[in-house]
């Protein structure tokens, strides 16, 4: 569509990029149909097309962000269903990233909102802090209902609700070092330990390490790696996000140069989407652009990597698995068939819940910052999943696991945990009763 | 009777009538004169002087004809090219007793003015769905063109639909352009015997839900069955009622679909089949409401309701009045002949109670007609709106006043 | 933004009362159902016809028929124009507001109210998307037939407003042929029902009149539509031709032979390339024109029909014939076709024409269209419903270049006049909207238009419903 930016505005590479993205949009409205917030709220302003328009208007006029624009951008889950739907190839992801940075730079949020965002940004990306915070959360849980009655404090209440009921155990999975191939070596990869996942569910990477070892893949857990930066990136805190990215790029570049890497394995698709975008995020940093692009090129979701290993086909087992495709998996990384094909080959019966394209409402910190919309999406998602009468739910992202688990009694596992079990690993604890 | 021979003559006549406030009854061959309330027109204006096929694009399956062209002439031209009007326009002469010297031939204009549709209406649409464009003279004597000659056309307000089924109360049709379709190579009828009305409704709904493209679904209870095909419908041993389901298309395809349909229908009752020739006759008889083309003036209703409730309506009425009935359109079109009183209020109350629809009195003794609204009375807001619409097309109120209420 | 098409001058009496009107609306609607902050109004300033834009006075997003009625009653009393909006996917600007208008959006009314298989009907709120009906009843073997390319997003209310068509209308008809009833709010807030689960409404065919009336006769809030049993199977087949003329002639011959496939879609070379880049559907890239012909029924039926079609295509020098082998493949073929307009956005801005012509005139009109567009120094991609002659030339241009945009509009106008002159019409399924309003006199005489306008006035004497659309501003009553 038509845009009106001055040459001076276009001198800013971020604006120039956004202008290019906006030019592609033909305002056809297809994106509204698959947008979880539009489907829930029925308001153009809470649709991708509406947000694109709000962003366009804000950027063209060089205006600081205001309360109205912030409200609607904040409601965006960044699920990127719109990107999958868009026939014109509008790169909504980078447009909304730009808008979020613009908001962070030009808009002063109300005090409570600021404090909560600061708290999240200061705690979640750091496993030690997060672990400690979860301890407090268990103490605070009785107050959750109380907090939710005060609108500014609702996010705190939501946070307490989401915190696991019991402390996660400590695990060696994130300990730096090399895990040798258990069979004849056929590859060497690095694995992302990440930030929140090892605290919430260390079993995922344990299963990954076991499975890869049995398959003859040497795995490096590099020293100094950390949060991928997605959490703060989605809050528009660009510098902090880029710092995380640079640190990880450094760590993996060292590994690449030292022993070579076939892939950088990621077991949380939310992180995968961001790491695959490092090349873009750091494109304007001459010292990092090239290295970051190389890292992004090597980043692979665990299922993406596993399909390349030609796992043997196993006898069918009587277990119905509802596969929930995380948004970051299907829309962010366009990985749709690999996880299901792996599960099928491993003998599971895979069910596709209706409205599979819709987000479960987790979306990073969304379930904390937008608890009401998140709760509606969760209910809708759980209803669709339960309609397939599954024995277990499989998905590829820790955020979805936490979110969906808080809404159903059906056990939910990471895809790789089921694969590890099928290919000789221990039976996941959550399936003890099955 | 005024029979102008050109559109401009017609316009002239109407302009004069409007100026003098002369009320005109509009007709073609007047064979559908049983429709509507008795009108107070002073003159009759017929389109029979405007006759002839204007254009027939066989490859594009579109025909344009002057409104007074006899249906028989149109059908002959179509037949020659193995084409047809898919909506199967009914011939009203049988039930209305409008044969004979004092009446003309049914005209194509009359077909569309009455929105006359037959059994295939269920799947292929009504006359109005095939009507692409019209020319008509409005109540001020202006020649108006609406629609066009292409199938897809959403340019402006769809006056074509509005005029279809308006029984000459909104304008005087002078020319119609409509879509035609190839005649199916083969027709076959699957007959299920011995079903009562309720069971037949279930069987027909089941048939329509199958991917076999049933193009006609009628239920002929015991009282009427014998009147079809000279009594040649499957024998009494199989039961006194016949539920008939029509399949059409390429011979090979019809054979396969008939097998599938018969297999499912066997769960409902004994199944037999009719071949192409018998089928064509049977469905024409259903179309023309053969059992009630009985030469009587017994009140005859044409009722349209949701298919699943047609038989409930008849059952309810039977408790209070003498009713003979059969069903087309999967049970949603009920033809009802009343023994004595038309029971209009009772019937219409039941229709409302069963979720809505409409009842049209097609025929009755004059005394009865005078006291019974022939068309379903409309809710106040819709009636007021309809009156405003009529006023915009016929400001002087000269076209068949009171005919449609 | 283009300026060639005028809007009605805003009613100053309305503009000057803006604050009071917003306050009054706030009494009629819950807060989340009313948009009035100027910044938030911007995204409602246009639909999918983005050449024209106007900021509305406010946007009402009611949840119930009662709320719609309350808003209408108020606007009627105060003489405030109302522009109805479904999903805002109109390609003719049907939902573009004006400065003194309330946009009445039905997007919050998106529930399927009842599915009745015995009577094969679905009753839905107007904001339900077209596709969601078929998705809901699909598992039980039914579908809702009209399938506009925007069916993923467009609403039933909008479909009724425009009498939308789609690829599969060749066999099943357009919206008006599949609509059984509506609940609608008249301009003064009165709620009426037309039709229902039965066939052929009583009295005048007001339902037929409302369908395609572009939101000028009232606000439809609920609709009852016809469901159809899904065919046993369906198979799209790709036919590649050297030239558009050959493909066009082949279409006319297929229909002329008495075979009526479910759909015959046409794409020329630019359109094939655009769609293939998006959908990777396997369209042949070495041909000048492509037909997607879909047949349905049992395998035997489809084989028989296809054999005849292939024979006809061979007579027209078909270059490649590819039968689709699986449901996934079929889905991709249709995804590519249905995304054609949007996918065009990858290479240029475009406006999409919608004229219909008699089938025999297809090759001639295609040729002439190219000539016209070339004369203006622009490019064109053709992708359309060939089976019913409903053309969609996409005129490509650069929206950031005002001269280019003006040329595109002029070329478009010439093409539409060409369609009318060839015996067709201005719009087959997108509606007149604002886009084709000023061309109406090319198709209709003054008396024809005056009659339409008079009937329109019977519903809305004060012309407050979508007033800038459909009828030329000059010569209104």
Automatic annotation (TrEMBL), chain A:
Its cofactor is [4Fe-4S] cluster. GO terms for molecular function: 4 iron, 4 sulfur cluster binding; glycolate dehydrogenase activity; metal ion binding. It holds the Pfam family CCG. Its EC number is 1.1.99.14. It comes from the Bacteria. The keyword Transport applies. The keyword ATP-binding does not apply. SUPFAM superfamilies: 4Fe-4S ferredoxins. Binds 2 [4Fe-4S] clusters. Residues 16-44, 67-96 form the 4Fe-4S ferredoxin-type domain. Keywords: 4Fe-4S, Electron transport, Iron, Iron-sulfur, Metal-binding, Repeat, Transport. It catalyses: (R)-lactate + A = pyruvate + AH2; glycolate + A = glyoxylate + AH2. It is an enzyme of class 1 (oxidoreductase). Component of a complex that catalyzes the oxidation of glycolate to glyoxylate. NCBIfam families: PRK11274.1 (NF008434). This is Glycolate oxidase iron-sulfur subunit.
From TrEMBL, chain B:
GO terms for molecular function: catalytic activity; FAD binding. Gene3D superfamilies: 3.30.465.10. Residues 1-183 form the FAD-binding PCMH-type domain. Keywords: FAD, Flavoprotein. InterPro entries: FAD-bd_PCMH, FAD-bd_PCMH-like_sf, FAD-bd_PCMH_sub2, FAD-linked_Oxase-like_C, Oxid_FAD_bind_N. It comes from the Bacteria. Pfam families: FAD_binding_4. PROSITE patterns: FAD_PCMH (PS51387). This is Glycolate oxidase FAD binding subunit. It comes from Xaviernesmea oryzae.
From TrEMBL, chain C:
Gene3D superfamilies: 3.30.465.10, 3.30.70.2740, Vanillyl-alcohol Oxidase, Chain A, domain 4. Keywords: FAD, Flavoprotein, Oxidoreductase. InterPro entries: FAD-bd_oxidored_4_C, FAD-bd_PCMH, FAD-bd_PCMH-like_sf, FAD-bd_PCMH_sub2, FAD-linked_Oxase-like_C, FAD-linked_OxidoTrans_Type4, Oxid_FAD_bind_N, Vanillyl_alc_oxidase_C-sub2. Pfam families: FAD-oxidase_C, FAD_binding_4. GO terms for molecular function: FAD binding; oxidoreductase activity. Its cofactor is FAD. Residues 52-230 form the FAD-binding PCMH-type domain. This is Glycolate oxidase. The lineage of its organism: Bacteria, Pseudomonadati, Pseudomonadota, Alphaproteobacteria, Hyphomicrobiales.
């Amino acid at each position: 569509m038509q845009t009106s930016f001055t040459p001076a505005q276009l001198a800013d590479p971020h604006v120039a990029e956004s202008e290019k993205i906006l030019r592609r949009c033909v305002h056809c409205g297809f994106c509204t149909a698959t947008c979880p917030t539009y489907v829930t709220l029925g308001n153009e302003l809470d649709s991708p097309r509406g947000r694109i328009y709000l962003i366009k208007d804000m950027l063209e006029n060089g205006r600081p962000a205001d309360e109205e624009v912030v409200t609607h951008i904040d409601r965006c889950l960044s699920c990127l269903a719109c990107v999958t739907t868009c026939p014109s190839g509008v790169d909504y992801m980078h447009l909304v990233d730009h808008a979020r940075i613009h908001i962070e730079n030009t808009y002063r949020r109300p005090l409570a909102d600021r404090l909560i965002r600061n708290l999240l940004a200061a705690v979640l990306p750091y496993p030690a802090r997060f672990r400690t915070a979860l301890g407090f959360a268990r103490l605070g849980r009785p107050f959750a209902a109380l907090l939710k009655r005060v609108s500014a404090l609702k996010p705190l209440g939501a946070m307490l609700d989401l915190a696991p009921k019991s402390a996660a155990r400590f695990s060696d999975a994130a300990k730096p070092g090399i895990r040798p191939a258990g069979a004849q070596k056929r590859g060497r990869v690095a694995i992302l330990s990440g930030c929140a996942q090892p605290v919430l569910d260390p079993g995922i990477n344990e299963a990954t390490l076991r499975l890869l070892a049995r398959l003859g893949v040497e795995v490096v857990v590099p020293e100094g790696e950390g949060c991928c930066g997605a959490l703060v990136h989605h809050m528009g805190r660009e510098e902090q996000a880029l710092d995380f990215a640079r640190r990880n790029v450094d760590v993996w570049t060292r590994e690449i140069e030292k022993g070579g890497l076939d892939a950088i394995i990621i077991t949380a698709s939310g992180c995968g989407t961001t790491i695959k975008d490092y090349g873009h995020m750091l494109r304007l940093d001459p010292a990092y652009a090239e290295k970051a692009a190389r890292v992004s090129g090597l980043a692979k979701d665990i299922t993406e990597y596993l399909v390349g290993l030609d796992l043997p086909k196993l006898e069918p087992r009587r277990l119905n698995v509802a596969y929930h495709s995380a948004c970051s998996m299907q829309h962010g990384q366009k990985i749709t068939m690999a996880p299901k094909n792996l599960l099928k080959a491993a003998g599971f019966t895979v069910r596709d819940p209706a409205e599979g394209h819709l987000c479960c409402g987790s979306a990073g910190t969304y379930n904390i910052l937008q608890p009401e919309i998140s709760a509606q999406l969760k209910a809708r998602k759980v209803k669709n999943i339960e309609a397939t009468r599954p024995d277990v739910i499989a998905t590829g992202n820790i955020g979805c696991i936490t979110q969906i688990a808080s809404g159903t009694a059906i056990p939910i596992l990471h895809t790789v945990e089921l694969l590890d079990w099928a290919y000789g690993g221990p039976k996941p604890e959550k399936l003890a009763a099955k | 009777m005024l029979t102008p021979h050109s559109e401009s003559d017609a316009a002239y006549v109407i302009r004069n009538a409007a100026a003098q406030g002369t009320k005109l009854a509009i007709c073609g061959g007047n064979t559908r004169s049983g429709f509507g309330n008795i009108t107070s027109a002073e003159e009759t204006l017929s389109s029979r002087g405007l006759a002839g096929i204007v254009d027939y694009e066989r490859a594009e399956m579109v025909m344009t004809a002057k409104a007074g062209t006899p249906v028989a002439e149109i059908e002959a031209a179509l037949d020659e090219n193995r084409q047809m009007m898919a909506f199967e326009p009914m011939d009203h002469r049988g039930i209305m007793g409008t044969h004979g010297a004092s009446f003309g031939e049914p005209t194509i204009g009359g077909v569309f003015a009455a929105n006359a549709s037959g059994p295939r209406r269920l799947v292929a649409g009504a006359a109005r769905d095939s009507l692409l464009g019209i020319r008509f003279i409005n109540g001020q004597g202006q020649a108006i063109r609406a629609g066009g000659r292409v199938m897809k056309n959403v340019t402006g307000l769809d006056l074509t639909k509005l005029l279809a089924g308006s029984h000459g109360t909104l304008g005087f049709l002078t020319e119609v352009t409509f879509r035609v379709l190839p005649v199916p190579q083969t027709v076959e009828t699957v007959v299920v015997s011995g079903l009562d009305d309720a069971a037949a409704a279930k069987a027909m709904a089941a048939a329509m839900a199958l991917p076999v493209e049933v193009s006609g679904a009628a239920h002929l209870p015991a009282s009427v069955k014998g009147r079809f095909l000279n009594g040649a419908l499957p024998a009494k041993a199989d039961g006194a009622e016949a539920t008939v389901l029509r399949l059409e298309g390429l011979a090979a395809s019809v054979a396969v679909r008939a097998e599938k349909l018969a297999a499912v229908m066997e769960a409902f009752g004994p199944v037999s089949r009719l071949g192409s020739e018998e089928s064509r006759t049977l469905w024409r008889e259903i179309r023309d409401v053969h059992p009630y083309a009985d030469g009587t003036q017994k009140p005859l209703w044409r009722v349209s309701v949701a298919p699943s409730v047609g038989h409930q309506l008849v059952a309810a009425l039977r408790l209070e009045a003498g009713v003979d009935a059969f069903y087309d359109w999967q049970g949603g079109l009920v033809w009802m002949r009343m023994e004595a009183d038309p029971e209009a209020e009772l019937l219409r109350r039941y229709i409302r109670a069963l979720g809505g629809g409409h009842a049209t009195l097609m025929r009755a003794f004059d005394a009865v007609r005078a006291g019974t609204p022939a068309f379903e009375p409309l809710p106040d807001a819709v009636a007021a709106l309809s009156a405003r619409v009529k006023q915009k097309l016929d400001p002087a109120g000269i076209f068949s006043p009171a005919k449609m209420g | 933004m283009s300026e060639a098409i005028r809007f009605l001058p805003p009613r100053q009496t309305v503009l000057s009362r803006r604050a009071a009107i917003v306050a009054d609306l706030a009494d009629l609607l819950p807060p989340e159902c009313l948009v009035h902050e100027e910044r938030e109004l911007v995204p409602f300033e246009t639909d999918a016809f983005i050449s024209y834009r106007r900021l509305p006075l406010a946007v009402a997003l009611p949840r119930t028929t009662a709320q719609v009625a309350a808003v209408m009653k108020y606007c009627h009393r105060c003489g405030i124009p109302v522009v109805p909006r479904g999903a805002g996917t109109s390609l003719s600007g049907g939902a573009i507001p004006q400065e003194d208008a309330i946009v009445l959006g039905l997007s919050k009314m998106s529930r399927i109210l009842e599915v009745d298989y015995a009577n094969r009907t679905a009753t839905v709120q107007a904001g339900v998307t077209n596709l969601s009906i078929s998705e809901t009843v699909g598992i039980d073997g039914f579908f809702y037939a009209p399938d506009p390319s925007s069916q993923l997003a467009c609403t039933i209310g909008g479909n009724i407003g425009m009498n939308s068509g789609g690829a599969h209308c060749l066999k099943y008809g357009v919206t008006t042929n599949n609509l059984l009833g509506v609940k609608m709010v008249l301009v003064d807030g009165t709620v009426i029902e037309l039709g229902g689960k039965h066939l052929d409404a009583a009295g005048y065919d007001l339902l037929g009149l409302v369908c395609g009336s572009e939101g000028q006769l009232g606000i439809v809030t609920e609709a009852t539509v016809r469901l159809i049993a899904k065919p046993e199977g369906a198979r799209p087949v790709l036919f590649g031709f050297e030239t558009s003329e050959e493909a066009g002639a082949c279409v006319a011959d297929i229909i002329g032979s008495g075979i009526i496939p479910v759909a015959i879609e046409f794409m020329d070379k630019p359109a094939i390339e655009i769609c293939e880049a998006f959908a990777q559907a396997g369209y042949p890239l070495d041909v000048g024109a492509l037909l997607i012909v879909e047949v349905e029924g049992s395998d035997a039926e489809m084989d028989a029909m296809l054999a005849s079609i292939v024979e006809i295509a061979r007579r027209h020098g078909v270059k490649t014939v590819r039968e689709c082998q699986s449901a996934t493949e079929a889905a991709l073929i249709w995804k590519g076709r249905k995304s054609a307009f949007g996918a065009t956005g990858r290479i240029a801005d475009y406006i999409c024409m919608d004229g219909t012509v008699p089938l025999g005139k297809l090759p001639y009109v295609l040729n002439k269209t190219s000539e016209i567009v070339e004369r203006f120094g622009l490019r064109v991609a053709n992708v359309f419903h060939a089976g019913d002659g409903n053309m969609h030339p996409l005129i490509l241009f650069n929206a950031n270049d005002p001269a280019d945009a003006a040329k595109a509009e002029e070329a478009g106008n010439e093409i539409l006049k060409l369609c009318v002159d060839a015996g067709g019409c201005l719009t087959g399924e997108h509606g007149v909207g604002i886009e084709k309003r000023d061309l109406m006199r090319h198709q209709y005489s003054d008396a024809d238009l005056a009659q339409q306008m008079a009937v329109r006035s019977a519903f809305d004497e004060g012309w407050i419903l979508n007033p800038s659309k459909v009828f030329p501003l000059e010569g209104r009553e």
